[in-house]
């Protein structure tokens, strides 16, 4: 190879080094040529750049659409204006569009861009004309056009001079041009006028037989007679889950234009049928629009509306010594653009106290404490947003309460009760909080913030079973020290609890050598040293690691069904196992008046009826044929053979006990087999679990779904919030509930609870509730689920209602069967 190259070299003719002239002569010429080429290239790119800029930016045009309404004062509304094919409509529409065109073309910032404008509807008042106007504007002039069009509002004086129309108000609002166009051309457009005394229904295309179509744009124009408002109620609302920014959604407008400044509410996701989705218009019109994307089909909605006489009556003079005030139409959404003033006056020697029990005046994306939009003003202080129960009191015998809603967004409002009280003794036989709320005297200085403002916990002498938090100076029970929960709020109860260097602090506060972390041995005794260990160690599972079907071990915390494939065989994400814990009604619900669950909110909840007794116990659906419940429900007693399957009937999908035989959501089954835990101890209630096989499988529905069974390595940490549900007694020794009840409670530290319950706990039990009492399961809730919402957004069966020392007592939390500890039993007996 080397040789052949030598051969070529001989043929190359090099410039003789001595021929310097030749080199000099060529040099400057080449330089000029290069320079010329560079300049030409620069000029060309400049030109191209300019052209691109010109066409792509200066010439690139944006379609702009504005919508709104204007009020014509020298015309009187007539029925013909409702129908766009009448001559009356077209005459007046022509005048309005002429006026708009005049207005636009006489403004130098608007005229060059104006394309088209149309009147879409009229309504009463004298005549409100709804319109849209379209413009085509170079991108760089968009902001200028926006300003000019929106400022037109204030030029209404000129309007009168130029046209035969007297216009006293004019609104314009930019809308998405694409959306506006598709609404205009959509064939899915309906015009409905309420009939006096009748209910008018409308629904999404295909409802209830088929899902609504993809990429749909529909609009419903709703009208009522003059002097009426519209009451709109969604009976069913099942849309795709809410997605931002797009997705499927329904918008309600307090207007006949789709201007966002008149938007009352955006609805998406699904609402349980028991949710009060009721809205009132402020005038006699309303617009409902539907937008769907290309995925995630659902049944849609069914709505109905009626007309009700318009009344501006709200608020007033109150001279009674006590009563209730609410926002208009509570608990339906209040109207936009309302003002109510209550002037409360009680006898001269008394003061006024107002307690808000429900308070929802929420505006999306608005956390402004000055309450610039909807608010309630009491004694000149404004309140808005979403609030827990609170009390406002006055220093004299008068109180003025003002409720104000602006043009857009409405909420469910408020309900409040007012009482008059004696200034010298605001809380007879009770403790008076700083905000003049009254609480039971026994709750003073007990370590719990019963007043809500800590005033019951100030200036206390700590007892020997209490310690004092550093910042707040509040006394708390000593067993809060070093329990891993920041009870003081300043962490002072958790300070100085640490472990020495090179040791690891377990969840139960034990210290173990650092080297024992993730060594697949439970050195802590609570497994916490083996949690959160990233490595996957094949074929050597410790008790604490999740075991894959192929025997791989996953030491990550709660790896099952978290949408991450941790096992190489994917068994942690098995679709059959993971198809559980779903709540078809996805909306976060608000409890309005009490603790009733919503229909379908806990679709795994079962009511077990014993012959001649009625509802006796709860249970949970875990598969189409299997329920889990508590073993103590099936112990023979008082001459009744509770262990006999034929004694029992299971009601699935049940919400209200009164409708268990009539509701179409309910599926009723007899029981084929009951398997109680072999080692259930009817003295200690250890191993309080039973499996029930149904006579025939149930069909899953929106109201019947299985709950997920946690793996034995699943971690439910202390302090985690869970839901307990059932139809059990509403008070200790009291009678059961008709509507399924729900209560949010928290997991309590095992050792602390064991102390409170005098060492009666076994490892197959967990405690949940509140040491302060007040919220708990009770008789009749037994066997029912303790449901835990996990990070994968599925509900898991953390426990089964088992026993307690009474119900809701202080220092006596409820005890639940620890499902993770009985995971192997469930596998062996239920095959799941
Ligand atoms: C019962 O008798 C019962 N406070 C269930 C739970 C609790 C108390 C009693 C918990 O079924």
TrEMBL record:
PROSITE patterns reported in the protein's UniProt record: CUB, LDLRA_1, LDLRA_2, SEA, TRYPSIN_DOM, TRYPSIN_HIS, TRYPSIN_SER
Lineage summary: Eukaryota, Metazoa, Chordata, Craniata, Vertebrata
Native source organism of the sequence: Leptobrachium leishanense (Leishan spiny toad)
GO CC terms of this entry: endomembrane system; membrane
Catalytic residues identified in the record: 632, 688, 782
Name by which UniProt lists this protein: Suppressor of tumorigenicity 14 protein homolog
A Pfam family: Trypsin
Membrane topology: Single-pass type II membrane protein
Disulfide links within the chain: 433-451, 445-460, 482-497, 499-511, 506-524, 518-533, 541-553
Family according to the record: Belongs to the peptidase S1 family.
Role: Exhibits trypsin-like activity as defined by cleavage of synthetic substrates with Arg or Lys as the P1 site. Mediates gamete interaction by affecting the vitelline coat.
Catalytic activity from the UniProt record: Preferential cleavage at 371-Gly-Ser-Arg-|-Trp-374 of glycoprotein gp43 in Xenopus laevis coelemic egg envelope to yield gp41; Cleaves various synthetic substrates with Arg or Lys at the P1 position and prefers small side-chain amino acids, such as Ala and Gly, at the P2 position
GO molecular-function term, one example from the UniProt record: serine-type endopeptidase activity
């Amino acid at each position: 190879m080397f040789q052949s190259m030598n051969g070529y070299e001989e043929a190359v003719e090099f410039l003789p080094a001595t021929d310097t002239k030749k080199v000099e002569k060529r040099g400057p010429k080449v330089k000029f040529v290069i320079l010329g080429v560079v300049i030409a290239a620069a000029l060309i790119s400049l030109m191209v750049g300019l052209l691109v800029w010109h066409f792509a930016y200066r010439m690139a045009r944006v379609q702009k659409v504005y919508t709104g309404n204007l009020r014509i004062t020298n015309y009187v509304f007539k029925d013909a204006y409702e129908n766009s094919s009448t001559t009356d409509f077209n005459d007046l529409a022509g005048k309005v569009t002429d006026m708009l065109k005049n207005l636009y073309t006489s403004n130098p910032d608007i005229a060059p861009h104006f394309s088209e404008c149309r009147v879409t509807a009229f309504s009463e008042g004298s005549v409100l004309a709804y319109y849209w106007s379209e413009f085509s504007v170079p991108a760089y002039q968009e902001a200028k056009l926006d300003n000019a069009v929106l400022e037109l509002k204030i030029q209404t004086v000129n309007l009168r001079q130029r046209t035969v129309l007297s216009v006293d108000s004019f609104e314009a609002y930019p809308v998405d041009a694409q959306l506006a166009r598709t609404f205009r051309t959509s064939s899915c457009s309906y015009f409905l006028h309420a009939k006096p005394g009748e209910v008018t229904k409308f629904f999404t295309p295909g409802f209830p037989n088929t899902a609504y179509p993809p990429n749909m744009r529909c609009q419903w124009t709703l009208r009522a007679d003059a002097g009426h408002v519209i009451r709109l109620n969604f009976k069913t609302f099942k849309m795709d889950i809410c997605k931002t920014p797009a997705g499927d959604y329904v918008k309600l407008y307090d207007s006949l234009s789709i201007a966002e400044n008149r938007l009352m509410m955006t609805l998406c996701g699904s609402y349980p049928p028991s949710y009060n989705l009721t809205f009132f218009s402020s005038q006699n019109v309303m617009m409902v629009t539907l937008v769907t994307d290309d995925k995630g089909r659902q049944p849609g909605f069914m709505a109905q509306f009626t007309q009700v006489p318009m009344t501006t009556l709200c608020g007033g003079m109150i001279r009674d010594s006590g009563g209730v005030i609410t926002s208009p139409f509570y608990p339906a959404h209040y109207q936009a653009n309302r003002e109510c003033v209550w002037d409360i006056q009680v006898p001269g020697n008394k003061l006024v106290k107002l307690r808000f029990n429900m308070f929802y005046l929420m505006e999306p994306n608005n956390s402004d404490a000055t309450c610039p939009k909807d608010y309630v003003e009491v004694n000149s202080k404004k309140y808005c947003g979403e609030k827990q129960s609170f009390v406002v009191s006055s220093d004299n015998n008068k109180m003025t309460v003002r409720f104000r809603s602006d043009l857009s967004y409405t909420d469910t409002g408020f309900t409040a009760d007012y009482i008059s009280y004696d200034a010298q003794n605001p809380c007879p036989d009770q403790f008076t909080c700083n905000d003049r709320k009254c609480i039971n005297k026994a709750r003073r200085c007990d370590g719990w913030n019963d007043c809500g403002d800590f005033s019951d916990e100030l200036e206390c002498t700590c007892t020997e079973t209490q310690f004092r938090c550093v910042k707040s100076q509040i006394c708390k029970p000593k067993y809060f020290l070093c329990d891993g929960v920041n009870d003081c709020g300043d962490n002072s109860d958790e300070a100085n609890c640490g472990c020495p260097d090179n040791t690891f602090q377990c969840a139960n506060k034990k210290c173990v050598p650092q080297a024992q972390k993730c060594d697949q041995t439970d050195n802590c005794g609570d497994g916490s040293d083996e949690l959160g260990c990233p490595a996957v160690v094949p074929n050597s599972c410790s008790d604490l690691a999740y075991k894959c079907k192929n025997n791989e071990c996953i030491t990550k915390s709660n790896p099952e069904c978290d949408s991450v494939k941790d096992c190489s065989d994917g068994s942690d994400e098995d679709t059959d196992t993971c198809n559980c814990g779903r709540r078809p009604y996805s909306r976060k619900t608000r409890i309005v008046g009490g603790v009733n669950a919503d229909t379908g909110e806990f679709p795994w909840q079962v009511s077990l009826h014993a012959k001649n007794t009625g509802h006796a116990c709860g249970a949970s659906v875990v598969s189409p044929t299997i329920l889990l419940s508590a073993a103590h429900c099936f112990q023979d007693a008082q001459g009744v053979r509770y262990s006999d399957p034929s004694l029992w009937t299971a009601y699935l999908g049940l919400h209200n006990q009164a409708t268990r035989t009539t509701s179409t959501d309910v599926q009723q089954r007899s029981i084929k087999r009951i398997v109680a835990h072999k080692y259930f101890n009817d003295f200690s209630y250890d191993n309080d679990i039973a499996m029930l096989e149904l006579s025939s499988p149930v069909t899953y529905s929106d109201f019947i779904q299985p709950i997920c069974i946690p793996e034995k390595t699943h971690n439910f940490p202390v302090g985690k919030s869970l839901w307990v549900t059932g139809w059990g007694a509403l008070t200790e020794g009291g009678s059961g509930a008709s509507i399924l009840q729900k209560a949010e409670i928290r997991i309590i530290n095992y050792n602390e609870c064991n102390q409170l319950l005098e060492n009666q706990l076994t490892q197959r039990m967990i405690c949940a509730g509140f040491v302060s009492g007040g919220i708990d399961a009770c008789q009749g809730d037994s066997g029912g689920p303790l449901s835990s919402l996990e990070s994968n957004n599925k509900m898991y069966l953390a426990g089964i209602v088992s026993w307690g020392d009474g119900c809701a007592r202080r220092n006596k939390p409820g005890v639940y069967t620890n499902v993770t500890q009985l995971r192997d039993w469930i596998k062996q007996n239920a095959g799941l």
